[in-house]
Amino acid sequence: MIVGIPKGLLYYKYYPFFTTFFQELGSELVISPDTNKDILDEGVKYCVDDACLPVKVFHGHVAYLKDKCDIILIPRFMQVRSREYICPKFCGLPEMIKNSIPKMPRIIDKPIYAISRRKLYPWAREIGRIITKDKKKIKNAFNTALIKQDKFKLGFNDDSQQLTVAIVGHPYNIFDNYVNMNIVEKLNRLGVGVVTEEVVEDSLIDEEVKRLYKRPFWTFARNSYGFASNVYRENKVNGIIYISSFACGIDSVVIELIKERIGNFPFMTLKIDEHTGEAGLDTRVEAFVDMLGRGVI
Questions:
Q1: Sign of the alpha-carbon torsion through 166, 197, 224, 75
Q2: Same domain, 44 and 133
Q3: Where in the sequence is the domain holding 36, given as residue range(s)?
């Protein structure tokens, strides 16, 4: 069986688990290429207009794969931490795909509760049965995939430059270089080091989140706020750049909470969608870095 895996949304964070799991079951994998203009254009063509950019990009990756595999993984992430939930777009993602893209092959759309090994295994057991009836093989594939995921290190931690900037936002905006127009590379060329939320321990993020009057409902909100608050309080960076998808409801709240927390600390929001021009983004990034270097902000 050929399994298609779209390189979009939380692929960047969890691909070691998914690719290892299906490979250990004996499946052939087809993974869509890095995001490019053709994939974005396909996504915009099929996706509803009011969806955010990452969801449109994901549609493009699925459209690329649909005629190249027997079954496509559409991860319906529900939880990755206890008492918190993933953005609602993930809950209805399979239905969006089914009703937007014609002539789809079979879809893997079982909800994923990745808050513990015990909660995640039912997903692996049910999906594994599609490929093999060997229960031992499914369990071994699951265990191997977890080990591979645990060893996976994601994120940027470059504080060797004279200036350091924290990049905050959803992982698929930070690690998809086409979507963010290679912002990390741009900053590096300007002599700026980059750090991301993965460098801050979960316990420290939890400490920052306790300052809020209410526990965040969304995991992405918790991560972004906790990370930005920590690097500000610990004076680890010279400034913060928040990469936000246009019309993202979660971001609209979290950005204001971060601004309230950090006061006059240097902060810039980069709103991105399919119409964002690279020249404009370059100008804003260069101006921000220039002001950091001059101590203007």
A1: positive
A2: yes
A3: 2-151
Integer Cα distance of 290 and 265 in angstroms: 15
Q: What percent of the chain has pLDDT over 70?
A: 99
- Local structure of residue 198 (DSSP, 8 states): G
Q: For the segment 208-237, what is each residue's pLDDT rounded down to a tens digit?
A: 999 888 888 899 999 999 999 999 999 999
For 180, the token pair is 């963010």
CA distance 244 to 282: 16
User: How is residue 193 written in tokens?
Assistant: 């080091």
Give the count of beta carbons closer than 10 Å to the beta carbon of residue 279. Answer: 8
As a whole number of angstroms, the distance between CA 123 and CA 114 comes to: 9
Give mean pLDDT, residues 162-187.
93
In a domain, 44, yes or no: yes
Does residue 87 carry a pLDDT above 90?
Answer: no
Residue 81 shares a structural domain with residue 182: no
Q: Is the dihedral of CA 285, 286, 288, 292 positive or negative?
A: positive
Q: What is the DSSP letter of 123?
A: H
Query: Sign of torsion, CA 1 13 43 123?
Result: positive
Q: What is the pLDDT, as a whole number, of residue 142?
A: 96
pLDDT, average across residues 96-122: 94
The number of distinct structural domains making up the chain is 2
Q: Which residues pair with 245 in a beta bridge?
A: 272
C-alpha separations of 123 from 146, 169, 193, 211, 233 in Å: 13, 28, 39, 35, 40
Please check whether residue 156 lies inside any domain of the structure: no
d(CA 125, CA 118): 11
